[in-house]
Amino acid sequence: MTPLKTPLPTAARGGTGVRYASQESVDQLSTKVDKMMSKLEDVLTVISSLSPSLPPSSLSHVTTPLASTTRHVYEACMKAIDEKAEYAEKEKRAVIIGSPEEATPTETLKKDEKLVADLIKYTESDVVQKAFTDGKVSYHRHPSDRTGKRRPIKIAFESKELRDSFLNGIRSKKGHPPPLISPSSYVRQDLTPHQLMLEREAKSEALTKNLSAGKIIFGVRDYTTHEARTQTRAADQSTAGTLSSTPLSSVSDAHSAAPPSSTRAPPSVSHVTTRTKRDDTPK
């Protein structure tokens, strides 16, 4: 069994900047992982075929760690391959956090459609607006198989480029976006389970730094701690954005009481709402 990973240091998360991999680099890495797995399978086969009495006792301190390390690397490669498809879909999605739900599902659905439409208009991106008008942008409350008061809204685009245009259009403007009525709501990427873990670590780090400074200086964007600007943007996943109206003396309790982010799988297509043209037949 692979041992639990220790929390990554700030430097391992990219410091104050976030580095994104190109699709080409991801494909190259995937090819290398496939080759590595093939070789690891050969190594595991050889190791398992050896009788414990065959290796000299003087070599046991080498063969035992080698077998353990090989299996750990093999498991990590398998996990990376299994999560590849999930990551590819998440890279096309943005998430609205903290938007209150209405009394009935019908009222919530109507409110969510207006919110998504207003946010897309707020980005002033022609390509994102056209995709929305053409019915190529979908959204749903997650998870869809249970009710809640502030379930995240996941917005799915056809490509990572469209998703990035949506986020950049919001983040390029100062202040809290008018469509987000709740001061604690914000927009971020759709994070993987591992990224959600890094996000929690970054939040804790930012909280500690802000408490130490006696004022809100640091925030979190896309699971990376950064120094907040004078006017915090609501599209940032930030301590500064979500706690700006809370006294620092009570920030710690609010932070620890916050529920963990959901990492459940996205719902089936039947639960996804897609905006289509009025003169088109819904698909």
Task: Tell me about this structure.
This protein is an alpha+beta fold and 283 residues long. The protein is 46% helix and 10% strand. The chain contains eight helices and seven strands, in the order ααβααββαβαββααβ. A hairpin with a 2-residue loop joins strand 5 and strand 6. Helix 1 (23-49) packs antiparallel against helix 2 (60-90) and helix 3 (105-123) crosses helix 5 (160-171). The longest helix is centred in the first third of the chain and has 31 residues, at 60-90. The chain is globular. It starts with 22 loop residues before the first helix and ends in a 9-residue tail after the last strand. Residues 1-20 and 230-283 have low confidence and may be disordered.
Summary tags:
283 residues, alpha+beta, five-stranded antiparallel sheet, two-stranded antiparallel ribbon, 7 strands, 10% strand, disordered N terminus, disordered C terminus
Short précis:
The chain is an alpha+beta fold. The chain has helices spanning 23-49, 60-90, 105-123, 126-133, 160-171, 193-213, 239-243, 251-257; strands at 93-97, 138-141, 153-156, 186-189, 218-221, 224-227, 273-274. The model is unreliable at 1-20 and 230-283 (pLDDT under 50).
